[in-house]
Amino acid sequence: MSGPDRAPDLRPWFLLAPALLSIIVLVVIPMSFILVYSFYENIDLAVDRAAFQFSNWQELFRDKYYHVAIWKTLRLSVIVTILAAVLGYVPAYFIAMTRFRHRWLLLLLLILPFWVSFIIRTLSWIHILGNQGALNGLFEWLGLTDAPLSMMYNETTVIIGFLHVFLPYMILNVYVSLDGIDDNLEPAARTLGATPWQAFREVTLPLSLPGLAAGCLLVFVLTGGSYVTPLILGGPNDYLFGNLIHDAVVSELNWPMGATLSFTLLVMLGLIVVIYSRFMGINQLAKAFR
After folding, report:
1. CA–CA dist 265, 256 (Å, integer)
2. Contact 76, 223 (CB under 8 A)
3. What is the rounded distance in angstroms from the CA atom of residue 73 to the CA atom of residue 75?
């Protein structure tokens, strides 16, 4: 049958049905509950009243405390992302270009930190940078200091903790892009008169930008949604937006305000993903885990 009487092909929808159903059940419905709960009214600790009111949202928009947290979160996420891109490109390039026969061993060493708990890896910096940590012990043993240096509980320590945890994501994404580049392109550029640096700048670097962008997106989103690292390694003023959500839900038991803050963070990070998808394409993210 052809023409306007032809029945629509429903096979793509049947194939997509499991994924769509999973997204609806695991993402859309929970997020809808969070949005609805943000309009509830908190009466006392863990006591809420169903009411369609905007006091939580008004507090969010009026209180500068939340505005400062948003600014800190975005600023720190940008700093961590830039540092991760700079520090991660070199080892990714080395792994992709090395002639070492057992390159899989280098990748295994890169993935090895994922086998250790996120919290334990973060806590390890206390034993490295603390007053009684390994670094202060080394300085005192070398006679460089007479008293322990205060290196903990500041923004620098938080950045170091983030880089320690999220740098492998950057390296893996950049490595996948570099590994997919034709090995003959750089030698061909050199044959045409380009120096090694020119060949890298004009050939390898542009072709690896999708992986670099995917790594930047992952590091930015993961940093923006984190609260454990600032909680363990940061000081009183080194809070991020995720810490406010944790405090509202766990410490203050103000779940409607926690829902308001959670949905706000979801929208903020979602906009970043939409912008990335618009310019780079979201399919690049899946390549790093193939």
Report:
1. 14
2. yes
3. 6
In three-state form (DSSP H/G/I as H, E/B as E, the rest C), the secondary structure along the chain is CCHHHCCCCCHHHHHHHHHHHHHHHHHHHHHHHHHHHCCCEEEECCEEECCCCCHHHHHHHHCHHHHHHHHHHHHHHHHHHHHHHHHHHHHHHHHHHCCCCCHHHHHHHHHHHHHCCHHHHHHHHHHHHCCCCHHHHHHHHCCCCCCCCCCCCCHHHHHHHHHHHHHHHHHHHHHHHHHCCCCCHHHHHHHCCCCHHHHHHHHHHHHHHHHHHHHHHHHHHHHHCCCHHHHHHCCCCCCCHHHHHHHHHHHCCCHHHHHHHHHHHHHHHHHHHHHHHHHCCCCHHHHCCC
What would the pLDDT profile of 107-152 be if each residue is shown by its tens digit?
888 888 888 888 888 899 998 988 888 888 888 888 888 888 888 8
- The answer to whether the beta carbons of residues 240 and 227 sit under 8 Å apart is yes
Domains of the chain: 59-287 (1.10.3720.10)
Distance CA 230, CA 238 (A): 6
Asked if 45 and 253 count as a contact pair (C-beta separation under 8 A), the reply is yes
pLDDT digits (tens, 9 = 90+) for 29-66: 999 999 999 999 888 777 788 888 899 999 999 989 99
Judge residue 155's burial from the number of C-beta atoms within 10 Å of its C-beta, 0-12 exposed, 13-18 middle, 19 or more buried.
middle
Cα 44 to chain centroid, rounded: 34
Q: Are 246 and 191 in contact (CB under 8 A)?
A: no
